[in-house]
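Example record for the data management plan.
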Amino acid sequence: MASAEPLLGAEAAAAKPARLSILPNFGKAKAAGHSRQSVFYGVDQAWAQYEDKLKKDQEHHHEIMEMKGNAVDSEGPKKAEGALGIKVNADGHSEKGKRAFPTPNKPDPMPPELAFLFTKITTEQMMYLWNIYTLIFVSQCSWVVCYFLMLKFNVNWYAATSLFAIIFIELMIQNVYCLHDVMHGATFPPYNWQTFITHPWADVLSLPYEDIVMEHQRHHASTVDLLIHGEFGWDPANWLYTLAEISWFTVPLVPVWHWLGANDTGSVFACLWWTQFPDAGTGGKCNKAFWKKWLKCRVQHQVWLWTLWGSVWLLGTYPLGRTLSEGWKFMFTVLFFSRAGFAVSWMFIANFNHSHFWNEYLANDPSRSNPLLHNIMACILGG
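Corresponding structural encoding:
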């Protein structure tokens, strides 16, 4: 853990960095001017350049900022314009919950023990989070290569695949948790290319990062209460809850539904979102930003996906003594377990967290009545 106080003088010169940074610094390093942040990432100039980039990204992706403004802890109904805005009746209440859009109950004065809940993420924390995200992506790519090498050097297929599956699925699970964190706390990355590494292993067809941020913010704006889905408008995640709520008999189909690509990072979900956003312009005309921004973004993302998965296909061909047409065997194995990892993560984030069963359990204060089970579940759910 990093010290809460900056290192000074000889201590700073002798100490090793407490956090891992695998990204190059922005711009050129200054000869002096090190601060607490620069101990971890190099120089203050990096922070200033990232903050400048954040301002430009927020202006360019104004749709994302407007959608984030729909959230309860932001401007709420003030940003209720457009097809994807908050929907309420004439009396200002929702159709489902029959209540007004909730407002944050922020304590005033703020108790010291709660202050951390209302503290915005710092620039240092944003860059650190994206550093970890990049490390996860590098680990995913490296582990696929390791699996290839195990097969090439005749390691037993069952042993190699079992080892590969366990670690690869865990990498995918951490991928989703990190994706969720950056969407909420560090929406725009330090480098533009990092938007391409957020979830390329999820599927061979998926939404680009910018689209995922948009639809996830739409989800939070419309589903304020975990158990009243789509209370303030259309929630793109609604169909993820259906199988779990119809009957206990359909619950076993939930992981299959996620594996097929019905979650935020999957192919089926991408087709759903593309039919809804961006909304049509005045008089049903094509949205002005569709051709210049969103289509371009989606094509670039898809070309990158096919390049990545095409490389996996090729790894499973001639290097393993197979023909070009047999590359699917290696690729499908990798895809099967990558989808499994994403399915498990989204199943807990979407279905478990939004289930009546889990929320009724939490209401009984399990941290006191059953602390062991509570701690296990907190760990599984990313706590």
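Summary line stored alongside the record: Confidence is low (pLDDT under 50) at residues 1-41.
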